[in-house]
Structures are given as structure tokens and as C-alpha cells.
Amino acid sequence: MSESNNDATTKLEDPIPSNSEDNPFQEPSTAMVNGEATLPANGEAKEEQTTDNVFQVNIKLPHHPYQIQIMVSTQEQVQDLRQSIMDSPGTFQYSCFHLEHNDTRINDFVELSEVKGLVAGSELKLIEDPYTEKEARMHLIRIREIIGAAGNRIDTLHGISAGLSLHDTVSPWKDPNTTSAAANKALNGNTSGNLNPLLDCSFDGLPAVSTIIPSKQEQPPKTVKSIGLSPWNPPPPLLRQQGHLLYLQLTTNEGEQYQLTSHISGFFVNKSSNSKFDPYPRPAPKNVAAHSLFSLIANLSPSFKKSFEALLESNNKRDPLASFQLTNAIPSSPWLVSPAVNSLSAHQPDLTRTQETYLISGIENTETLRDWNEEIQSTRELQRDTVQDRVFRERLISKIFAEFNDAAARGAMMVARGEVAPLNPTESKDAQIFVYNNVFYSFGADGVGTFTSEGGDEAARVAVGKDVGGVKAVNQLDIAGLAAPGTMIVDYLGKRLVAQSIVPGIFKQREPEEHQVDYGGVEGRDVVAENEAFVPTFSQVSKALKVKKHAVWDKEGNKHVLEGSVETKGLLGTDGRKYILDLYRLTPLDITWLEENWSDNTDENAKPSTHNYPHRMTVLRPELIESYWGLKMGEYVKDELEKRKSTGTKLQTPSLTNGSEESSTNGVNLDGRESAAGSKERTVEQNAEQERVDISAFSLTLNPDVFCAQVPQTDEEKEEWARDEREVRTVCEHLHDKVIPDVIHDLKEGEVGFPMDGQSLSRLMHKRGINMRYLGKLARLTKEEDPRLRALRSLTIQEMIARAFKHLANNYLRNLSMAFATSCLAHLLNCLLGTGLNKAPKPHLDEDLKDLYNDADYSFAKVTPKSLKSDLEAQVQLRYRHSLEENWILDIKHLQLLRSIALKLGLQLIAKDYHFTAETYVPSGESRAMTNGSAAHAETNGHAHGVTNGKKKKKNGGRNSPTHTNGSDLPGQPQTFSPDDIANLVPMIKDACPKSVLAEEALEAGKSSMMQNQKEIGQELLLESLALHEQIYGILHPEVARVYHQLAMLYYQLDEKNAAIELAHKAVIISERTLGIDSSETILAYLNLALFEHHNSNTGVAMSYVRHALELWKIIYGSKHPDSITTLNNAAVMLQNLKLYPESRQWFEMSLSISEEVSGKSSVNTATLLFQLAQALVLDQDHKGAVNRMREAYSIFLSKLGAEDPNTKESEKWLEQLTQNAVSMAKHAKDVQARRVRRVVFNPRVSTMGARPQPQVGQSTADMFNDHELQHSNRAFDSRSIDELMRFIEGGGDMSKSQTTKKRTTHGNPRRRGGGAAVGATA
């Protein structure tokens, strides 16, 4: 994804009209490569490529339909072809087979290009293999999934409704192979407004939580009543020798029960019953048998075929991407879930659900025990010589990291719940370590005193988070010969756990004279080890991360020269690999912040420790170092050029070089590939006026150990150390004096997209190299009258409060049993958000359970709204150096703050309208339905249904709350939250999985080619990048969603509308499932999809997406977001396109009102919107209002831009034409009044003044205007002043003047206003 998208700075509407007819992408049902959609190409050149690499083969089958055709690629492996066969509709019953070509068995792990004689049209024979026990288990799992008999799984890691997509419910998905012309006509041909999705949309009404809850789906048809393992398992030894593998039990829809035997030859019905064991085949004619369990069920159940077809039809109603299982990405868990999940009836019985662990891992449970470290390191050591090698390697890396993260997170949850025994049970809890599933766990706390001088537990918590970031950076560098353990952190139930793959030798007891590590600090900074074997690899890390090679001194004063920080350690594993550990200090400390906010309390004037920042681990962000490097590089090049100019010397070649050949870390370059350094060099090259500058002499590295109690010994060492300190201070000054003010300026001027929530604000700050501790400074610097900065200030304050609440909640949860977690969180939420309903909330505690946990900390029960408010203010002051205003509690946005807290703590709340004020609470059994148009206070979410005491039926969920187990039925005043409202807690995960270098290179190369106007090469590279992203990550991955988004924008600009829409749909679904159904990136994806659909004449569908995006916007931000101006404007244009002029006018007016509030009444943005509103008023036959609005626009343009600006001239001519038209209309009305009706010669087109519905949303004005028409029509303008004409319109003028006696008609239309976001309209 581009930088603008990653840091929430996307400009939504800056489109180019598109008129393509062909979609360059086919559906997976048309062609399968690697089990995914192939990318047949766009144009003749691509067709040639397709014929070279992709062709069709015939697969001969042993059963009906006996033969199928499948598209294959020469680059895919045979096992990928096997997967394609298993995924095809007519052959998914096969799972245990091999393929033969010319009667020769093909190895599953070779590429198809290596199969001799395999060409287009070749015939491959599918041969059924005998089963093993593992294959029989996998076959049973697979068939249960296919026939819909698997039931609902209870996933302990991913949470409720993980990976949810609402795309199909927003606009029902249509099979692209069927025509949708009739449906589109019904939506787009409507002019009555009955099908207008925006008809009842409220601009500033309350957000409706129903927006992010899926509509009730019909239950898919059941194909069998049940199928699973029989109680007779496992087979006794005698029968196992005869080929018996499993015993199954099947109950068909007809109510018949069958006992089945899984045999090495297939499956058959045996003679057993529930009380009698006889696993041999039944005699004829009941001896039904088949190689596939699917075929056997079809033979036994007469209704199976029909019900299975109905199941397929039901599944086909959804977009396949919405139901595919995520493999290489963590699915997003929504913070609001349907009330039905708490219904007891929602939990269905399924005996096999408890047997899945056995089915997946076997009776010995050995198949899931893996040596994670060896798998990760051996995968990284695979060959990388060719592009094919790199694709295979990076694909495996992505897969192994995803599997490690999944296993490590599950183990971390068990450790947090106390279900894993520690290896050192005699130590304190924070110092205990664990091993589970070959993963090493420790707490992110200072259990052994390592960080005592740095801030204790707070410093340790930050350090492990920075360590994961450091490991990710090293993994991204991908340096040969350097290994980093698999690492991730999990925040769960108030605890932070570090999960690592076990490094061989890390637990080894060394000899007394040997150090525990081989390079770097051994025991803090007191003992330092050196080892020349680590220097080559560590130096590569240091060079890439701008770390200076520097000296450090141990407690004896001995000097040691290290390539990295003294805290970074090197360990020689017993497997011979060199491991790099403890990467939490790759960048220097932010000394400016520390000197202002930290004291070691060593002098008399030191501040009290309670006022200190919580820790000294205030390292600078690597993005800031890159920013500073770029600044210094520019200064160096500029100085070099000045030197050259002063001597009159110019070099021959217009290029820039670093003094050596550019080499790739990975050894392979793609055509047009450009590294990050190359990008910087290209920028510098352009700025250097194409003169050649040798940058090999330029160097900028920083010492990460300055200001860390190092004591140089000699004067020379002290002098160098002082230089290092000055350089770090300069970087900190760059942050304070340049970076932070630039961000504020860019947001104030609208040069970057405005963040929507805390997540997008964090991404923006991190992208610019700003740590979150500077939220307070942002809030202070935005304390002015500018409306955009007021919005930013409100968002930063909300984020500080949410983060402070997270820290407080974690402190209370850390020493609590899971049984009290929901009671604790509900009480804290009531004290913060529920005081409008109950000023003195009481905690819900089960006293009987409380007695079982005598060592737990129940201090949360003593929290009151007053004490929590005070604690939050103290936390915000402590962590962000910001003092909240006295009445800040009155200004919070309840629902938005609740969402932010839920996302930070991993809460999944029941979706209902929470009552934050007494006005919205309905004490009786009545309830009001959820609506979008309630005219209540915008800062409350007070829809009144779903009383939280559990006694009332939720209208939305249609169920009764289950019996409360934590005392939420206690009598007394109602409370906003009860423990039962917290349906689940999911872990918050931060991993170290690197991005694909190869896919990113292709993407950057494609972008570069497009920028150089090499469209054909650029498109080819971008398609290659998309294919690489899909192959390496799998389709369902956030990085793939971002590539889909970028390619959709590109195709839209290239007039490939169908291709853009197809990719945009995929981007929406994948964003929803991996980033969140209400994430800021998902909203942007919906808005762009709406734009593409509108330009493809699917305006009705487009408005559905706009409506959904606006409802999401209200949930995550509230109303009147600065960037919503453009969206409202575009919605108005869409309504004009449907000839819904009154509704369009309302949306233009709303867009204008927000612009006046956000940009100011006299801004150019507001003037542009006034211009467009004037046109809308003409279309709505309000000529007088149109003149007023156009005159306001003209006045602003004149004062802000001057009389000669094109906008000023254009608005002036429009104003003259509109005024002339209004005068004619007013005079005609007076004539009618005085009964002096005269015939007015009136051109019908003049009434709309040429202000047709804009055909392109966001098109520039210049593209639409015709100067000849303007000059021609100018001759027909009235000669009097505008003021005179306006006085007549308003009833105070006299039309009897001589110069007006002659009536005339206009000779042509004035200029037509172009797009919905003309100059200055884009917010």
C-alpha cells in the first residue's frame, strides 16, 4: 500500500474518467493456477504471455464425470494442481490420489515444467491411492467441511465472528458470469426515489450499531444429521493389521444410522451397532462401499444429492472470498458481535467437535509438535538464486511465520490463564518461564531486575515490544548467515507475554569462565563480550539501520568496540548458527524528552519519582532516523553542487552514484526494480538538476548507547562521544522543530487525509517517525481556533484517554482470575462511560467465587467514577505530559471512546444500543428499534432498547439474555454495562513476520514505470506483483488487500472500469476480514468502490456503498469528519445523476455546512462548494438562492485568489448569467401579477444554466469547460451591475429603464461545471 494509505492520508476522490469495457481478470472458476485466480491478461501482449505460461490439461477420472479440464501454469507444482482438482466442484470428493502422465507417476513436489511431455491438451490420469490413518482422518475432516456437517467451531484464539465480511449484505454479490443488466436498470433507472439508498440517511444522527452486525442469514440446508467418529475407535491391533483405520457413525436426514469402517481401500458399511462390535462389511445387497466417504453417503441417503445441491446454491450466494479460510493472516475480530452469540440456543451439539484435536494431530498427538526454530531458520536458508527460488522461499517463510504465530498465541493464552506449569515454579510470578508446544514464554515484566534503573516493569514491557519491532526489521533485511528467533508478543488479560522459538543452546549451562552470550553485553553493561565471528553480519545490520560502530566500556573500564548497541546480543547456537537477540535498542534515546521528563533522583533538586515518565526506554522511531538521513543527504548533495558551481565544474553524466555498483541483498533484480535507497537517490538526483554526485563519502550513523551511563576514558574518546551526543540531539531537534510541526501543518491545510480514529492517527504518527508519547504535544500545539486542528485535538485527547484507560485496566486485570475479568471491565466502563445513567455504579461480584481466589486483587471494586477520572488524568499527565481540562468527561464521544478501548483491550461486546445517559434509557419493557435518523445529541449513543440488567428482551437479537452468573441481576439502579455484555476477550498480537521483498520490488518497479509513462511495462510489472502477493501471502492477507486497492485505482485511471471494480470488490472483502469491518482502510475501500461503480453507471449500487461507509464513519469518528466533505459532495453528484435534484441539494448543503465549520466560511474550499451548490439550486429551480450562493463564491474567490484567477473569472461569468436568468424569471412573475402577461422568449436550457449532473466525481474544472461557448454566451449578459439586478430580484427595483426594454435570448449555454471535487473541493 502506498504511504498515503498506510498512514491514513489517502485522498479519496481524485479520479480520472474511465471508459474501459474489458475486465483483464477472470474468475477462479474459469482458470485455476496454484489454487487461485489466474490473471489472464489485458490486450494482445498479455494473451501471448498467457499462451506461453498457462495452458489447459485434461484430467481423466475413475468416476463420473470421468474427465475435466483445468488451466495450469508451468511455474506451479504438481501439488498445486492436486489442490486445484480437490477444489473443483465436480471432483472435491477426491483427496487420496496421485497423477500419472503416460502411465508414469508424477512426483507431487516437482514443477509442471519438469514433467516430460506435458503440453497443452495433455491427458493426466487420476489414480486413487490406498489410505493411511492420517489420510483417512484428513479425509473425514474435509468431507465434514464440504457437506456442511462440521458445525460451529469455538475458536479460543480468534474470537467470535472472526474474519467477518459485510460486503454481501451491503450490496448482494452477483455472479459475474450472469448478466445483471436488469438489476442495474432497476437501481439506476429509478427516478422516484423509492430505491434511493440515501433516502433516509441522517447526516448527524446517532450511529447505529446495527451497521456492523451481519443481517440474519438463512441457515444452510443440512445434508446429513451427523457424521463423526464411532465409540468403537480405535481399531484393535488384529483389525489394524487387516487395514482398518477408523470407525465412523453416520445419521442421514432420513433418520437412518450407519456404522462405517474406514479401510485402506476406502469406506464401507459394517455390521456393528451401538451395542455390538462387528466391523466387517455387510452382506449383499447392503454391502455399500466407495473409495470416497462423499460417494458412500450419496449412495446411502436418497435426499443427500438434492440437499447438497441446495447447500452449494446457498454457498454460491456469497462471494467466495467472504467464506474462504484465512491461512497466512490473523482474522480480524469485531469489537461488536451479534446478541445471538450469547443465546444458549446458538450453541449446537456436535460430538465430533471435541474429537477434532485427535483427527488433526493423531492419537499420539505428535503431529503438532514441531521444532519451530529449526523450521524458521532452515526456511530462511533456502536458495534465493532465481526468481522462482525466491518465490518458493518467501512463500514458505510467510507460511511458517503464520503457523508459528498461531501456535504461539494459543500457548500464550494458556500461560496467561495459568494452565501451563512453569519451569521455575519457585521464582516470583513475573520471573517464571514456560515452554509449551516447543515455544518459550516469559512475561514482559522486570522479574529479575534487569531494568531496575530504566523503569522496572514499565521499561520491560516497552522493551519487549521494541524487541519484536527490531526482530521484524532484521527479518526484513534478510541477511545471509544471521538468524533471529521467531518472536511475538501477546497482550491478554492484563498480562504481556513474549513468545519465542527455542534457540538451541540458550539454556546450556556454560563453564564458569565462559560468558552466557558470545557478543555484546552479558550482564547489563557490566560485562561485555566480543567475538570476531559476529562482526561481518552485525555490521550489515548496523549499516542498514544507520547504527554507528562505537566503543563501550565495562565496569572495569575496559574498552570494547561493538557493531551495535551494548544491549544487542549475539549467541552462537549449538546448531552452529549465529543468533541476534535483544533488539530493543536499535535507535538512540530521545534525550530531549528524557531531560524534560525524567530524573534519576541523584541530586537534591530532582523531581519526585512519581512525576517521572514511567521509564527510560524512550527510543526514537526508525522512521525518524530515515527522515533525518534523507534531510542530511539532501544537504550533502546541495553542498556538493555548490562546490562544483563555485569552481565551474560540471560532470559528464547526469546521474548520481554511491561510488560502487548497486548490489542486491537477495542477488536477483527484477526489470525496473528500485530499492529504497535507490528511490532516495533518484529523488536526490532530480533535485540536483541531473548533475552527477558521488555520495560514497556521505555517511550518517548514530550511536544508540549515548546517554546510557557509558564512561569514556581518554580525552579523544570523550570528544568523539560528545560528537555522537550532539548528533543525537540534532535528530531530536529535527523531530521537535520539523517533523511534528509539519504533520500539524499538513493536517491543517488538508494536504494529507485526516485520521478517522486512534488507529489511523497512530499509523500517521508512526509513519512520520513520531512516538505516541507526543500525543500531548500534538494536543497542545493544536489548541487554536482552526476547525481542522480542533478536530485533531479532540481525536488526540480521545486517544490519550483510551490509552490511559488501557493501562489502568491492565493493572487491575493482571492479578485477577479470568472469572472476574468481565466484572472488572464492566465496572470500569460504567465508571467512565455510564455515569450519565448511574452516577454511582456498583461492581458485580460473585462472593462465592471470590472466596475461591484469596490471593486475587479485587481493588477494582473500590473504583468510583471520581477516582477513575482522577487516575485517568494522572495517567495522561504522566505518560503524555498533558493536563486534561476540568470538564473533559463532558466532551467525550461515548461510542467512539468505547470502540477505541475495546480495540485496545481485545473486548468483544454485545451489539446493542448502550445507554450512556438517562434520557435514552427506557425503564419499562418497551424498546425502540434501531434507526439512523434519531435527532438526539451527537455525542451519545442512546437508542433505547436492550436494558443492561438482563431482564429485558433485546429487540435486535430476538432472544432473552442468559442467566447472569456474575451478579448482574442485582436490584438497584440500572447500569450501562453488565458483565454479560462482554462476550469475549481476544488476545492482542504483535508479530515479527517480514514483508515479501520480491513482491514489494515488483510493485515499486511497476509504479516507477507508470510514473515514467511506460504504461505497458508498468502494467505487466504490477500484474506480476499482484500474482506474487497472492502466491506468497495467500489471497486473504492485508498486504494483498492494499495491492488490490492500488491496482484498482490504477486501472480506474487507465479507463479499465470493470477491472477496477473487480479489484476494488476484492479489496473491500479482504480489508473487512483482515483489518476489521469498521477499520479506516475498509471505509476508504468502500468509498473508492462506490466511486468506481458510479462511473460504471451503477449509481444505485454506488450509493449503497456510500451509505454504508458514512454509517461506519459515524461509528468510528462521529459526524462532520473533515474528509467527509468530499464524500457528501460525491453523494450529491450521484443523486443528481439519478435526477433526484431536491435530495442532491440537501447533500450539497450538508457538505457546505461541514466545510464552513471545518475550513472556514471564507475559505477557497467553501467557495468551491458554494459554486456547486448554486448549480444544484438551479437544477432544483431555486434561481434566487443560486444567485446568492454564486455571489458568495465570487466574493470569496475575489478576496482570496484575486480578480485574475480562473476560478474568480469563472464564478463571475456564472454569476452574471445566473443573475440575468433570475431577472427574467422575476420580471415574468411581476408581469403575471400585474396582469400584463407578455410572452417571454426563454431558452429552456437556460433554466439549468448548463449545470448538468456532473458526469465525473472529482474531475478538474478545466477538462469540462469550453472557452468558445463562454465567449459566445458572454455577449448576451445584461449590461447593468449585479447589485442593480439583485435589487430587482428582491423586489426593490424598476424594470422600466430604457436599456432593458429589449428582450433577448441567450445564444448558448455558459460553461458547464465539471466534477464533484473541482479546484479546492477535495477536503
TrEMBL record:
<dbReference type="InterPro" id="IPR027523">
    <property type="entry name" value="CLU_prot"/>
</dbReference>
<dbReference type="InterPro" id="IPR028275">
    <property type="entry name" value="CLU_N"/>
</dbReference>
<dbReference type="GO" id="GO:0007005">
    <property type="term" value="P:mitochondrion organization"/>
</dbReference>
<keyword id="KW-0963">Cytoplasm</keyword>
<feature type="region of interest" description="Disordered">
    <location>
        <begin position="1"/>
        <end position="31"/>
    </location>
</feature>
<keyword id="KW-0802">TPR repeat</keyword>
<dbReference type="Pfam" id="PF12807">
    <property type="entry name" value="eIF3_p135"/>
</dbReference>
<dbReference type="GO" id="GO:0003729">
    <property type="term" value="F:mRNA binding"/>
</dbReference>
<keyword id="KW-0694">RNA-binding</keyword>
<dbReference type="InterPro" id="IPR019734">
    <property type="entry name" value="TPR_rpt"/>
</dbReference>
<feature type="compositionally biased region" description="Polar residues">
    <location>
        <begin position="17"/>
        <end position="31"/>
    </location>
</feature>
<dbReference type="Pfam" id="PF13424">
    <property type="entry name" value="TPR_12"/>
</dbReference>
<feature type="compositionally biased region" description="Basic residues">
    <location>
        <begin position="1300"/>
        <end position="1314"/>
    </location>
</feature>
<feature type="compositionally biased region" description="Polar residues">
    <location>
        <begin position="961"/>
        <end position="977"/>
    </location>
</feature>
<dbReference type="GO" id="GO:0005737">
    <property type="term" value="C:cytoplasm"/>
</dbReference>
<comment type="function">
    <text>mRNA-binding protein involved in proper cytoplasmic distribution of mitochondria.</text>
</comment>
<feature type="region of interest" description="Disordered">
    <location>
        <begin position="926"/>
        <end position="977"/>
    </location>
</feature>
<feature type="domain" description="Clu">
    <location>
        <begin position="345"/>
        <end position="594"/>
    </location>
</feature>
<feature type="region of interest" description="Disordered">
    <location>
        <begin position="1290"/>
        <end position="1323"/>
    </location>
</feature>
<feature type="compositionally biased region" description="Basic and acidic residues">
    <location>
        <begin position="671"/>
        <end position="689"/>
    </location>
</feature>
<feature type="repeat" description="TPR">
    <location>
        <begin position="1041"/>
        <end position="1074"/>
    </location>
</feature>
<feature type="region of interest" description="Disordered">
    <location>
        <begin position="644"/>
        <end position="689"/>
    </location>
</feature>
<dbReference type="GO" id="GO:0048312">
    <property type="term" value="P:intracellular distribution of mitochondria"/>
</dbReference>
<dbReference type="Pfam" id="PF13374">
    <property type="entry name" value="TPR_10"/>
</dbReference>
<feature type="compositionally biased region" description="Polar residues">
    <location>
        <begin position="648"/>
        <end position="668"/>
    </location>
</feature>
<comment type="similarity">
    <text>Belongs to the CLU family.</text>
</comment>
<dbReference type="InterPro" id="IPR033646">
    <property type="entry name" value="CLU-central"/>
</dbReference>
<comment type="subunit">
    <text>May associate with the eukaryotic translation initiation factor 3 (eIF-3) complex.</text>
</comment>
<dbReference type="Pfam" id="PF15044">
    <property type="entry name" value="CLU_N"/>
</dbReference>
<protein>
    <recommendedName>
        <fullName>Clustered mitochondria protein homolog</fullName>
    </recommendedName>
</protein>
<dbReference type="InterPro" id="IPR025697">
    <property type="entry name" value="CLU_dom"/>
</dbReference>
<dbReference type="InterPro" id="IPR011990">
    <property type="entry name" value="TPR-like_helical_dom_sf"/>
</dbReference>
<dbReference type="InterPro" id="IPR023231">
    <property type="entry name" value="GSKIP_dom_sf"/>
</dbReference>
<dbReference type="Pfam" id="PF13236">
    <property type="entry name" value="CLU"/>
</dbReference>
